[in-house]
Design a protein that fits this description.
There is one protein chain. The protein starts with 11 loop residues before the first strand and ends with a helix. It is of the alpha/beta class. The chain has a single domain, classed as Alpha-Beta Barrel (TIM Barrel). Helix 1 runs parallel beside helix 2 and helix 1 packs across helix 9. It contains eleven helices and twelve strands. The chain has a twelve-stranded mixed β-sheet with strand order 7-8-9-6-5-4-3-2-1-10-11-12.
């Protein structure tokens, strides 16, 4: 089995199909840094769907088990269900999932189901209409996203939900989110606010830890506890808990308070073809020239193998202890999907 310098396998690939997004979330793409005329990648610089499939094909012999399609906002890339169908047809053993803000999800659900998409994850940080509009930056309506989430559960049976919690912004939304989604078919996950990229003005004092949220939830429903759920594989990022009455699950991605670098099995492919071996990387490995120069699949696999076997990233374990992150040249979240 292919492993990196710390013995971690290459199991997961997160594929950004576009760097563009219709939201301006403060922790990812703050509006002051990304105005309406921001020069996102032009179509000719994006990897084509066949090129993405070639990278997946090169990674499968190395141990790849799961692909997550993300962005930016992936649903801004037209014909995305066709990419899902191509991947599931060629690599039926690979799990293919989608991470989206949900704004344009509902009309596409039948096509994603027909393409055999395995999972849907929707980001939602608030149920309050005004708070949601403010946090997403462009004044979008939370009702549209909530309707899409409900439809996705009907179509796929289960939906994962991601909520980034920022102290002073939306920690009062934890309880409303839990009460709303404490039902079978929903896996709600709380994500600690991370210092990804250089533009979100991250401050450690704004981090609400997973343990803080869990302690609150254990007292939320009288007489109903939370039971820990074993990880399905070592590289799973979420610490999961199930409600004792069977009404859904909650998870915690504790990258700040409890780093999981030691088990990280994820690589990230940017929309323009750069492979990143860490969410906090300063630079990626550009695969586009190889893809467009006609490299063989064996050659691509050899390139991926060389990149992964040289990997030794563990930024979250080495994160500075000072309150604020030191600005550095790091890839932005919108470029690699978080």
């Amino acid at each position: 089995m292919l492993v990196d310098q710390r013995g971690r396998p290459l199991r997961d690939l997160r594929v950004s199909v576009t760097d563009n997004c219709n939201f301006r979330c403060t922790y990812c793409m703050p509006a002051e840094a990304f105005p309406a005329d921001y020069p996102f990648l032009t179509a000719d610089r994006l990897l084509s769907f066949p090129e993405i499939a070639r990278v997946v094909e090169a990674a499968v012999p190395l141990g790849l088990k799961k692909v997550k399609l993300t962005g930016g906002e992936p649903l801004l890339r037209s014909l995305l269900p066709e990419l899902v169908l191509s991947l599931k047809t060629r690599f039926p053993q690979v799990e293919v999932g989608l991470i989206t803000n949900g704004l344009h999800l509902a009309p596409l659900l039948p096509r994603f189901k027909a393409a055999r998409l395995d999972s849907v994850t929707v980001s939602i940080d608030s149920l309050d209409a005004e708070r949601f509009a403010a946090m997403t930056g462009n004044g979008h309506r939370v009702s549209v996203v909530l309707e899409a989430i409900e439809e996705a559960r009907q179509v796929f049976g289960r939906v994962k939900l991601n909520a980034v919690v920022i102290r002073g912004k939306n920690e009062d939304q934890i309880e409303p989110l839990v009460r709303h989604f404490r039902r079978p078919g929903f896996d709600l996950r709380f994500i600690e606010y991370m210092d990804v990229g250089t533009l979100n003005r991250w401050d450690r004092s704004q981090v609400v830890t997973g343990d803080e949220v869990l302690a609150h939830l254990k007292c939320l429903v009288p007489g109903v506890g939370l039971d820990p759920v074993a990880k399905s594989h070592p590289g799973e990022t979420s610490e999961r808990w199930a409600w004792a009455d069977g009404r859904g699950m909650v998870g915690f991605i504790n990258s700040i308070s409890r780093p999981f670098c030691g088990d990280c099995s994820r690589a990230r492919l940017s929309a323009d073809g750069k492979l990143y071996t860490c969410l906090f990387s300063s630079a990626g490995h550009d695969l586009a020239p190889l893809l467009r120069a006609g490299a063989t699949q064996d050659g691509l696999s050899a390139k991926l193998s060389a990149i992964w076997t040289g990997r030794k990233d563990r930024y979250s374990e080495e994160r500075p202890v000072e309150a604020k992150a030191t600005p550095a040249s790091r890839v932005e979240m919108f470029a690699v999907g978080g």
